[in-house]
Amino acid sequence: MAALLKFPGRDAPIAERVTDPFLAMPLAAREEAQRCLSIIRPALTRISQQGVSIRAAAAWLAASFAEGEPSARTLARWLTQYQTGGIVALAPQYKGRPRQARGWEARAMHLFAQPQRPNYATVALWLRQEGFEDASEHLVRRYLKSLPSDASDTSRKRVGAHYYQQNIKPHVVRDSSVLPVGFVYEGDGHTCDVYVAHPATGRAYRPELTVWVDVRSHRVVGWWLSESESAETTLFSLSHALIGHDHTPSFVHCDVGSGFKARLMTDDVSGFLRRFDIAPMFALPGNAKGKGLIEGFFHWFEERCGKRFSTFCGHCRTDDALRHLRQRVEKGVVKLPSLVDYAQAVKDYFDFYNGNPQRGLDDLSPNDLWQTLERVPLEVPSVAVVRPRETRKVVRWSLALHGRTYRADELAQFEGREVLVEYSLHDDSLVWVFDEKGRFIVEAQLNEKMPWLSDSRIQDGLERRAAGQRKRLQVKLDEVDARSRKPISAASMLDALDAPAATPRAIEMPDSRSPIPALPMPAPAVSLQIVRPLDQAAHAATVAACEAAPVPMETQSQRFARCLQLSARRDAGLPLAEADAAWLAIYETTPDYTAARMVFEDFGSLSGVPNNNEGNP
């Protein structure tokens, strides 16, 4: 219980942080202490200069006040307090009624600091259910609100570790003004929050936008629109940034996504960045603050560009409009923009962004700062910028790459050795071969190609993705077909229950490929125990009539079907044979009838019961 007293209220954490006890007091207490000091200040001067006693100084000061003002006794007490403890001693010492420990404080803190984020009333209800009868709602709310915020409202457990890390915990702010323009590029991929008509199918899809921004000037230096993030899209966007400005940055800052940390980009030997001596810097996974510039850029991009389209599908859109957006698109109420139109809107926004002054840049635009760029020109032809490299081993003067074989006579000198193969993403007719030091060797021509391969590696990637999509859709179709099968019929269930234990039968599944084996269970015996009180003589006669009636061996479902037919005739007012009426009266009181009735209520309608007693009236 002593641990609970460490949280008396909001004053406790302030008192720990502030070293001056006077500043740690509430404002009203400080004002009262200053008022008392201003009153006794002349008496303090008289005591220090003339050496009079506290009582004489208090009497002298009280004589100067009118009646009703502080008395000499009160003034003497103030003088004594000030000389003993200073101005802090003059403040009122009343701290209010001390809080009473009730025993549920620790449990209330535990229940409140949960990721489910219960409110105060819910916590109070749970405490009362656990036996704390005095845990009223107002007491629980008052206690939880008196705690420090990091122990209640903004605790790590209540808001979640990720939210706490991103929005509450302080982070290091980097000063980008010390960087030269064009020194570091920051990039990321973003799935656009706008439905666009697919250029091939015309159906709605969300394109992937990859953007590179200069950290110092905040200028968009390169971008690319594609279907999904990959190493190729990252390569194209960065190539656009390099070729468009004929400049090579020293670093690129990105996350560890599939498109940015692929071997195609970062391999020490054949990676794209290695060819230009660009060093990659990777942000921590899940840390959006590490790439705050590009993350904030995408936020304002959707706010100012994406929301111009009626097919905007961001999280900030109302739920009802977003829920019916697809239906409105299919009905033609909302028209999908074409990819060309959307790309033009993206380009227009980037032009506006690069020319718009920003407060973070001292009211300069990104274009203004970009004019101070000290260009580092590319050292390779621009046609080689968009060609990735991979390491391959020469076997029989040939190279195997992506299911294709390339051959050249000059490769005989490198038999059994590894070389760097540079290829085009759009044309597979030849590759460029370099040695391990990056020196050009030869252009190897395509020698043979495996069947069913396209002329474009990009097309190969599209086909692989389409095959994966078809596979996942087939799994969903199989699940839909399995769920569409009919449940176990009532008749088959009754037959299974009626089957002898020695010869268990299978329960037939309608529209199924194989029957489900039934567990062996004893056949329920037909009980003749009557619930309603009957005359003993009449009962004996009825039993004798039933035993004399020539009834063939029936299953449980056949008996129940016969019962339904006879009861239908009886309810319609039609006459029944004496034996049938007696059998029906006895059968409706047996456990056999009750069990059959429950099975048919659980497994289907009663109209599907087979009728094997067509000879009965």
3D architecture notes:
With 617 residues, this protein is of the alpha+beta class. It has six domains: 4-90, no CATH class; 105-168, no CATH class; 176-370, Nucleotidyltransferase, domain 5 (2-Layer Sandwich), CATH 3.30.420; 387-449, Beta Barrel (OB fold (Dihydrolipoamide Acetyltransferase, E2P)), CATH 2.40.50; 454-484; 490-509 and 517-608, no CATH class. Helix content is 42%, strand content 12%. The chain is built from 25 helices and 15 strands. The protein has helices spanning 11-17, 21-24, 27-50, 54-63, 72-85, 87-90, 105-112, 120-129, 137-146, 156-159, 161-168, 231-245, 263-266, 272-275, 292-304, 319-323, 325-330, 339-355, 366-370, 457-484, 490-498, 536-548, 556-571, 578-587, 591-603; strands at 184-191, 196-197, 204-205, 208-214, 220-226, 251-254, 279-282, 389-393, 398-401, 404-407, 418-422, 430-434, 440-449, 506-507, 516-517. The strands form four sheets. It has a six-stranded antiparallel sheet with strand order 8-11-12-13-10-9, with no helix packed on it. A five-stranded mixed sheet has the order 5-4-1-6-7. A hairpin with an 8-residue loop joins strand 14 and strand 15 (516-517). Helix 3 crosses helix 5 and helix 23 (556-571) packs across helix 25 (591-603). The relative contact order is 0.05. Residues 1-16, 501-534 and 605-617 have low confidence and may be disordered.
